Amino acid sequence: MHREPLDAVRSYRARHAWRVLAEFRELLALSNVTGDLPALRRNAAAVADLLTARGARMEVVEHAGAAPLVTGRLGTGDRPTLGVYVHYDGQPVGTGWHSPPFTPTLRDGDREVPFPGPGDAVHDDWRLYSRAAADDKAPLIALATALDGLRDAGVEPAVDLVFCLDGEEESGSPHLAGYLDALRGRLRADAWLVFDGPVHHSGAPQVVLGVRGYCGFELTVHGPTRELHSGHFGNWVPNPALTLAHLLATFKDEHGNVTVQGFYDDTAPPGDADRAALAALPPVEDVLLERVGVAGPEIPDSRLADRLMLPSFNIRGLRAGDVGDAARNVVPATASASVDIRLAAGDRPERMLRRVREHLTAHGCLVLDRDPTDAERRAHHRIVRLDAALGYPAVRTPAGTPIVRHLAELATEAAGEEALTVPGLGGSLPLHALSRLDSPLVILPIANADNNQHAADENLLLRNLWYGVDLFTLLLTRRP
Amino acid sequence: MHREPLDAVRSYRARHAWRVLAEFRELLALSNVTGDLPALRRNAAAVADLLTARGARMEVVEHAGAAPLVTGRLGTGDRPTLGVYVHYDGQPVGTGWHSPPFTPTLRDGDREVPFPGPGDAVHDDWRLYSRAAADDKAPLIALATALDGLRDAGVEPAVDLVFCLDGEEESGSPHLAGYLDALRGRLRADAWLVFDGPVHHSGAPQVVLGVRGYCGFELTVHGPTRELHSGHFGNWVPNPALTLAHLLATFKDEHGNVTVQGFYDDTAPPGDADRAALAALPPVEDVLLERVGVAGPEIPDSRLADRLMLPSFNIRGLRAGDVGDAARNVVPATASASVDIRLAAGDRPERMLRRVREHLTAHGCLVLDRDPTDAERRAHHRIVRLDAALGYPAVRTPAGTPIVRHLAELATEAAGEEALTVPGLGGSLPLHALSRLDSPLVILPIANADNNQHAADENLLLRNLWYGVDLFTLLLTRRP
């Protein structure tokens, strides 16, 4: 073999695309709704078999009450080692699909095309529709195909891989930390690569260095013990919906700044390399504002990427009495808000929630974690119930970490387009558990941006599957 | 006849209580759910017959699409005339009844007692359970019984009565103004008396001089065109629930004062007699605070009766996204509040709603009566939709009006307990139409305060029925 391994694998997958799609179809036909343990066990076995067939030594580990974790190693053990994190569970299917979610279907635009056989043409702009086609089984097939292509070309990988294939990501990975603690000695790697999520909206590949953490709370203001006639009691008995409005207005000012004492104190400021990476990101603001139909961002002229480096305070929901045709003339008994806080690097969920509690106390509230007693009702003018969800911290690898540059170069070469180095995504992933493995953590998305992740008609653009094959080929053949 | 007419009628109804209850039972057995035209026609005929049998000249008038109005006159036409307003329709029945709502049932405490026959004892603390027993058929039976007693005693009434018996009160009396305009010439009276609602919580009789008016609005803040992922967009795209909280906080301060410019400007201040009546009302605040389970009123140490003389601003409901287990990590697309404004004497619904609109404009809102266009979304940072419900003005007869003292004296004598003169109730009734008859309007409640009006197990305490008989007896025999 004198050709570059990448050329060889590209040639291989062009010739064997029909076989790749057949194997992908089989994997996708396995229902993998998160939480469905029997189904997830079938997926775990299939995923382990997929990599065993490519020479990896795989093991399906199962802790009581948890979906299995599929782990294993590919390689000799004396080479640089990359950790590969993929999740094999999927979101619930919901409704609105044009083909059944576990009946993988190929389409060319709106037109269904039959799965190809040997020698049939396969077009890069076809899409494969199925739950988990993009999120997150695509990387498994991409890796298997890269390994098949390298074997076909007689190329020995230059790095080892260790695997952490999660069956509970869509449920928040509640048992991942426990699995990792138990397996820690077998999961050493020079870096852990998370294959999940979509490439940039522009179609450019991206190397993502962080995700936000998460915590949240339900806040309920307690008014009278029951709804009261607004004519007989309104204007005299305090209205909990008004109190809630006043309280929420104290959390964030009209300019988008959270006014909770210390809210931004723990956040790690971006380093020089992070700032450079942020500055290099293409502007997306005008397009996004047009798409979502608003006149401007919360903070005038702010850039989305910059705002994602800070913790957020978002009101997810409000509830009191009824509105519209269902509204009744009452003073509501309670008024509730649901809030999610996205955490930036350095923020700690428990500290954030403590600040929220202190903020409420400072604004005159008796803060309870249960409903008030009659005695408390008579003694306190402002009573709130705070139900906190602790969540998990953010993950952020500094852009100056040596392997980041290596990965960005490989992504650029695989895609034939300059890869973006993105210091942080807006979303939260329960990746913090992986940071206990003490290696740099980098996210390498493969799927197209319009993959309908979590929704009906989830799909993978074949061009993005081939990008994944190329990226794995380079990861396997270039030493970091 | 040498006895006082009141004594004579009391003696009559003691002897004939079984007959009164039999006639009441028959009237209550007629289903009268508001909006059920065929049922309401049967009620209108029964009510007209009831009074025709007592010598009134009755007429059932029916405008297209409306429940009938029963009108008529009792008397010679050359005497002082009192208008009698009663409504013969009832609330929908709902669920939770211990006996069917249109199967009138007598109970002594929890124990059902058979309807009495001639000579059987009847106790004042029995209750008659039925939809409309209290609200609002009791005054019709009380009047009929008073007339029977007077005839039995050979007493000629000293006043005439004209009747306005409404079949749509529980639907907001949408056609009442039209009926009154058509019948105006036949409805002249020295005062119009509204027999509806309960006596005071303390059990004392009351003469009520006003009810609040009503207007309201639905306010919807428009954010992004659809719910957005709070991780990807939160902290950058404006959150409509936060904007709503900020806006609501501008409407009413934390001390309970409405901060809309001009909100209190039109309200007629109470006169000397009104202030004296307010001061004479027994304190109810401590008992009510205990009952509703709050530490204090919105405005510290304020009295309920004083607050009812001012317009109110009450948030009936809030809606945005979801809360609790249903909450999702989104920036909501819209956030809505439903508000009712109770109007005091002098306030005009259209002026109040204009002030609300101006307040929103002053706080930077583009105020629409429809959803925004794409162009509006891109041009305006704060967009709200305001859907207004115009309602109706308040009614208030000044406490210094000559007939008020007369009525209070009669109520005191009928009840054997000092009657309260109440300048204004908290609730709203569509009585404004009656004020086009250009006579003082006074509400004379008969029913017990715990009558479960509008709810399951509506009931009338017989003692209150007898109070009604006595009150009508005095109204008929004492010239104002």
Automatic annotation (TrEMBL), chains A, B:
SUPFAM superfamilies recorded: Bacterial exopeptidase dimerisation domain, Zn-dependent exopeptidases
Single GO molecular function: peptidase activity
InterPro entries: Bact_exopeptidase_dim_dom, Cyt/Met_Dipeptidase, Peptidase_M20, Peptidase_M20_dimer
UniProt keyword list: Hydrolase, Metal-binding, Protease
Coiled-coil boundaries: none
Pfam families from the UniProt entry: M20_dimer, Peptidase_M20
Gene Ontology annotations of biological process type: proteolysis
Organism in which the protein naturally occurs: Virgisporangium aliadipatigenens
Protein name: Peptidase M20
Lineage of the organism: Bacteria, Bacillati, Actinomycetota, Actinomycetes, Micromonosporales
Domain Peptidase M20 dimerisation: 210-363
